[in-house]
């Protein structure tokens, strides 16, 4: 045999070994891909309930938010009504106080003047 035939045989043998190694590594790669696909399916099946519960939670939060907004509007309306009524009561109180002050102040001044007049009269009366 000559050297070319030996080298050809070695080349064919190494090509065969390379093909076997490629088949082995392709099998490992396919196995990894199948395992990855299974994990993705598991993740997908786990995420679906999470997504649906998150959507339901969002819906419930929107409903709660709307209810809170309505209650705040009602509360604001009640507070505005109470504020209006308190303002009216204070306005009435001020008018009554002004009316009493307007009526009582001259009376007090007159009584004070009468008291001073009587005091002066008695003093002058006693001096005589």
Largest sheet: none
Fraction of residues in H or I helices: over 70%
Measured between the Cα atoms of the first and last residue, the distance is 175 Å
Mean pLDDT: 90
Proportion of residues in β-strands: under 5%
3D shape: rod-shaped
Radius of gyration: 52 Å
The structure class reads: mainly alpha
Topology, number of strands: 0
Order of helices and strands: H
Unreliable sequence segments: none
Per DSSP, the total helix count is 1
Give the key terms.
rod-shaped, mainly alpha, 0% strand
Note down, in words, how this protein is organized:
Helix content is 98%, strand content 0%. With 128 residues, it is an all-alpha fold. The termini are far apart.
Provide a brief overview of the structure:
By secondary structure, the protein is mostly helical. Helices cover 98% and strands 0% of the residues.
Sequence-ordered SSE layout with sheet pairings:
Blueprint: H1 3-127
């Amino acid at each position: 045999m000559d050297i070319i035939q030996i080298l050809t045989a070695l080349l064919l043998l190494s090509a065969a070994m390379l093909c076997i190694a490629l088949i082995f590594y392709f099998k490992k790669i396919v196995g990894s891909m199948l395992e990855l696909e299974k994990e993705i399916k598991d993740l997908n099946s786990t995420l679906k309930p999470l997504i649906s519960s998150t959507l339901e939670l969002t819906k419930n939060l929107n409903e709660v938010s709307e209810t809170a907004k309505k209650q705040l509007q009602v509360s604001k309306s009640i507070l505005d009504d109470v504020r209006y009524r308190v303002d009216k009561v204070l306005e009435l109180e001020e008018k009554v106080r002004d009316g009493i002050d307007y009526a009582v102040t001259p009376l007090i001044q007159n009584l004070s003047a009468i008291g001073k007049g009587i005091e002066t009269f008695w003093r002058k009366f006693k001096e005589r």
